Amino acid sequence: MRLLPTLIGATSAVALCVAAQAETITIATVNNGDMIRMQSLADDFTSKHPDIQIEWVTLEENVLRQRVTTDIATKGGQYDVMTIGTYEVPIWARQGWLVPLDDLGDDYDVDDLLPAIRNGLSVDGKLYAAPFYGESSMVMYRKDLFEKAGLEMPEEPTWEFIGEAARKLTDKSNEIYGICLRGKAGWGENMALLTAMANSFGARWFDMDWNPQFDSQQWKDTLNFYLDLMKDAGPPGASSNGFNENLALFQSGKCGMWIDATVAASFVTNPNDSQVADQVGFALAPDNGLGKRGNWLWAWALGIPAGSEKVDSAKAFIAWATSKDYLQLVADKEGWANVPPGTRTSLYENPDYQKAAPFAAMTLRSIEAADPDNPTVDEVPYTGVQFVAIPEFQGIGTAVGQQFSAALAGTVTADQALATAQQVTSREMRRAGYPK
What is the Cα–Cα distance from 418 to 213, expressed in whole angstroms? Predict the structure, then answer.
């Protein structure tokens, strides 16, 4: 009997020793539903890796982008894992700022990653960030409101149809708005929507000589269509609404349609969170008859800055969070409909997922339809669907986004916003030495 205190003491000492030896990795991530769910499931990782502790830094999308960009460019070393996307990865990898992820383990199955998503996170065939989820954009709509209005959503709608339907669905006295679209300023907020939309209107950021094109008729048509639509059929205060704000509006039954990230589908169809879960339909992002749809291509991915001193631990976490086993873990805890979408071929071949996720086929079709190498009607010198894959885009995209958000708020006219966008973009491109 006298051995028991000794054994307890020894066990406690071992536990203290393990805790003392544990390495803490700092993970910067975005405050959306899938990432928050990942944090809630992280005990699964730490139980398998008792020598690794996690410190989370969870930020709003625009703030996250600013913080991680500053940190990696200055070699600040604040983070061991960064949540970054298909814009940053190729640019930063070519700068030598990211650790290659070509050794995530024998059972990781990198070949299972969807080609469109994998290619966007690779340079010269080498993966530099692992996709946590992938997305395009599509139309999410209220089937009950469409039926009430005598409307039928085409599988491949046009912008003209979207505009007409949004106005018919709007009932402002009952806080029903025909359409919810991003208005919050940011290169990855309102400009993701508007750049992809502009592609379908025949607009482009630059011509082949890197001259900005905001003085074109195509951009004028895009912005005026957007502003008129939001004035007639959008919610009040739309210039402050990004992904999360529009998600909340749609889930509470206030949006007839929402054109946004395909990843939202699991949230708007989740009966625990959405008041309209059983009434949601899906369609491809609209086109304008010019051969390009207004859908983007994006992945939120996990990468390791080259300045991290905890690369092995960071790789272990990334391998866990982006693995097939993680998808199974979410399915076991939350149901197949809620697993992070858009990353693995095997997910879309899984009958359990197909059965649970009515949006699966449309999500995959949207991702595969996006063409970052040929994003526009007329030829351009850049790649990227809802962004221009050059380092300068982060700054100019946000500056232009601020002008368009101001136009939506009514503080400047569409013509003033476009003129300022042209001036700002021209000035910054000259400073950066374009054409190069």
Answer: 9
pLDDT, tens digit, for every residue of 356-400?
999 999 999 999 999 999 999 999 999 999 999 999 999 999 999
Q: Is the N-terminal amide bond of 435 cis, ω within 30° of 0? A: yes
Burial code (b: 16+ CB inside 10 Å, e: under 16) for 199-233 equals: bbbbbbbbeeebebbbebebbbbbbebbbebbeeb
In sequence order, which residues have a C-beta less than 8 Å from that of residue 335 and are 6 or more positions away? 356
Task: Give the three-state DSSP class for 139.
Answer: strand
Listed in order, strand segments (DSSP E) in 219-365 are 257-261, 280-284, 298-303
Largest CA distance in the chain: 88
pLDDT digit string, tens, across residues 244-254? 999 999 999 99
Instruction: State how far the Cα of 147 lies from the Cα of 134, in Å rounded to an integer.
Output: 31
Residue 310: how many other CB atoms lie within 10 Å: 17
**Tokens 């990795």, residue located:** 25
pTM: 0.89
Domains along the chain with CATH numbers: 20-134+298-356 (3.40.190.10), 137-296+372-431 (3.40.190.10)
Place of tokens 């070393």: 77
Residue 148's nearest CA partner among 116, 180, 174, 123 is 174
User: What secondary structure does DSSP assign to 235-256, as a single string?
Assistant: PTTGGG--HHHHHHHHHTT-BS
For residues 157 and 127, give the distance between their C-alpha atoms in angstroms, rounded to a whole number.
35
